[in-house]
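re: ur question from earlier - yeah i can do the single chain one, its not a big deal. heres the input i used so u can compare w yours
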Amino acid sequence: MFTAPRLVAALLLAIVGFAASELIKPLMPEGTQFGWFSFINAGLGAMVGWIVIGTRIGRGMSAAISNGLTGAAALIFWGLFSQAGYEMLRLSLRRRYDGPVEALGDLFRIATEYAMTIATAPVLGTLFVGGVIAAMLAEIASGHWR
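and the output i got, formated as tokens:
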């Protein structure tokens, strides 16, 4: 159901996803073509904010902190999965794999490499602090708009 607090959570987590994406870009190898990277992660942030944080609004501020941490972790998971899936698809279209099982196995290797790359204090801090702030502001919004 469409509610203002869910919209607040979605918009704020989209901003967090975009900001974290901009912090990730300098960490990647030089010459990396990013394309829609930041916008895809912002879209993922909006979906995670709507689904993960938005469905748990109205349980108080202490629950909002937990919801924000959960939302940030979900954003990291889906961001890694989608970006690694895209890279695996790009490599498979270049015929780098002998079969689908090898491609799916490489998906986890790519995701692990990406996870090690983004495991820095600025990126994780932005994601987790931003997720908590987004959830807390959505909780405040639920008190104003019912």
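The first helix runs from residue 4 to 24. not sure if urs matches, ping me
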